[in-house]
Amino acid sequence: MSEKQITDAEKKKENTKRILELNFKLLKKQLEKHKDIYMRLKDK
Question: What is the top-level taxon of the source organism (predicted)?
Answer without folding.
Answer: Bacteria
